UniProtKB/TrEMBL annotation:
SUPFAM superfamilies: C-terminal effector domain of the bipartite response regulators, CheY-like. The keyword Repressor does not apply. The modification 4-aspartylphosphate is found at D68. Residues 142-240 form the OmpR/PhoB-type domain. GO terms for molecular function: phosphorelay response regulator activity; transcription cis-regulatory region binding. Residues 19-132 form the Response regulatory domain. Coiled coil: none annotated. GO terms for cellular component: cytosol; protein-DNA complex. InterPro entries: CheY-like_superfamily (IPR011006), OmpR/PhoB-type_DNA-bd (IPR001867), Sig_transdc_resp-reg_C-effctor (IPR016032), Sig_transdc_resp-reg_receiver (IPR001789), WalR-like (IPR039420), WH-like_DNA-bd_sf (IPR036388). Residues 142-240 bind DNA. Gene3D superfamilies: 3.40.50.2300, 6.10.250.690, Winged helix-like DNA-binding domain superfamily/Winged helix DNA-binding domain. This is DNA-binding response regulator, OmpR family, contains REC and winged-helix (WHTH) domain. GO terms for biological process: regulation of DNA-templated transcription.
């Protein structure tokens, strides 16, 4: 289930560390992932099933959750759904290779990233560090971005539309901020994977799902978006409403 591609000594120290909740019913997987994450400088807590994970997250919200989809009892998709009812904590899913439908559903529920099994524990640790780095404080040249009734506070990482605060995941916030910072420019899905996710290659449906979720939150009519436009044959473009 886990493949080892390098020695643990080769794992670089994370630039931004955090408290990570690892949810998997396989004791070996939990132990190996814990050791790699701790080597990268993260604090790690472990849960063996979905109910335990939700109790732990409610008692003390983690900075990131590594969540296996194939859990006994309450499966990973339901855990992700319940987390998203009250939290924007970043979630990295562990999925079986080839389970594209579950992967897309997980992303549509608000997961930020996924790693397919069998996976490299080193790669997972790097993905965790990458997500935490992106959702953590970032240097900005302005306090925020605005477009009509849509306002982003880049320092507090808050989004408001029509005076109402929106609940965005870390990756959704990063995608929206990137597009708003580059209005009028068309980006392919591969461009956005590289710029927002930091991936040189990957499943481009990840971008499609996140764009759809963003439209549901920032567009008055998601079926006829005016801010996040589709550029046919290319990708997406942000058009300021004003």
């Amino acid at each position: 289930m886990i493949c080892y591609t390098t020695s643990m000594e080769e794992l670089p120290k994370a630039e931004v560390t955090g408290r990570v909740l690892v949810v998997d019913d396989d004791l070996t997987v939990r132990d190996v992932v814990r050791r790699y994450l701790e080597l990268a400088g993260h604090r790690v807590e472990l849960a063996g099933d979905g109910e335990q994970a939700l109790r732990m997250a409610a008692a003390h919200e983690p900075d990131l959750v590594v969540l296996d989809l194939m859990l006994p009892g309450l499966d990973g998709l339901e855990v992700c759904r319940r987390l998203r009812e009250h939290s924007a904590v970043p979630v990295i899913m562990l999925t079986a290779r080839g389970d594209e439908e579950d992967r897309v559903l997980g992303l549509s529920l608000g997961a930020d990233d996924y790693v397919s099994k069998p996976f490299s524990a080193r790669e997972l640790a790097l993905r965790v560090s990458s997500v935490l780095r992106r959702v953590g404080p970032r240097p900005v040249t302005a306090a925020g971005l605005s477009d009509g009734s849509l306002r982003l506070d880049l320092t507090a990482r808050r989004v408001e539309r029509d005076g109402r605060e929106l609940t965005l995941t870390g990756r959704e916030f990063d995608l929206l901020a990137f597009l708003m910072e580059h209005p009028g420019r068309a980006y392919s899905r591969a461009d956005l994977l590289a710029e927002v996710w930091g991936w040189e290659f990957g499943d481009q449906s990840t971008v499609t799902v996140h764009v759809r979720r963003l439209r549901e939150k920032v567009e008055a009519d998601p079926a006829n978006p005016v801010r996040i436009a589709t550029v046919w044959g290319v990708g997406y473009r942000y058009d300021p409403s004003g």
